[in-house]
Write a structure and sequence with these properties.
Elements lengths: L3 H4 L2 H11 L4 E7 L15 E10 L5 E8 L8 H4 L2 E4 L12 E4 L4 E4 H7 L5 E4 L2 H13 L5 H6 L5
Antiparallel strand pairs: 1-2, 1-7, 2-3, 3-5, 3-6, 4-5
């Protein structure tokens, strides 16, 4: 017997998922170079990463997100280092007793279809507070690598 999920088209599933995802939600998934995540070793094809949803494209085909990193890469320029917003483990239990940094230098993209395929029961780990989300958006807007077109595309500016 087919499940309810089996009866839905991929487009319908994607739209249902897109309607349940919120800006500020934090997920942990195995992301690939397609989403702008470089695996740690040559043998790896993906990497588990935390990320914050910052918006959706107007067509409803993709999610814009920023990565959460354990540390700031010391090889980055000072300008790019300043675009990493700190979040505290005391406010976010999923961070496992370690403060982290939201990389606001670049908005990454994942298609709804790929998100749907990667989504598991424990993928959503938390929600960024309104105050932190406000600072994250402010920092994204300051990034020289994020274009006005991207800010409009993901609804960060209107």
């Amino acid at each position: 017997m087919a499940s309810f999920s089996d009866l839905l088209s991929e487009t319908t599933k994607g739209k249902l998922i897109a309607n349940t995802i919120k800006v500020g939600s934090v997920y942990r998934m195995k992301l690939t170079p397609t989403e702008g995540v470089i695996p740690k070793t040559i043998e790896d094809t993906s990497r588990n990463k935390y990320f914050v949803v910052v918006g959706f494209d107007k067509e409803g085909n993709a999610i814009g997100f920023v990565l959460i990193n354990t540390n700031i890469n010391p090889n980055l320029t000072e300008e790019v280092k300043l675009l990493h917003y700190p979040i505290l483990h005391k406010n976010y239990p999923f961070l496992a007793n370690q403060n982290r940094f939201v990389d606001c230098n670049e908005i990454k993209r994942i298609t709804i279809e790929k998100f749907n395929n990667l989504l598991g029961l424990n993928s959503e780990v938390g929600q960024i507070t309104d105050e932190d989300l406000s600072y994250i958006f402010r920092t994204i807007k300051e990034s020289p690598t994020v274009t006005t077109k991207e800010l409009l595309k993901y609804g960060i500016i209107i």
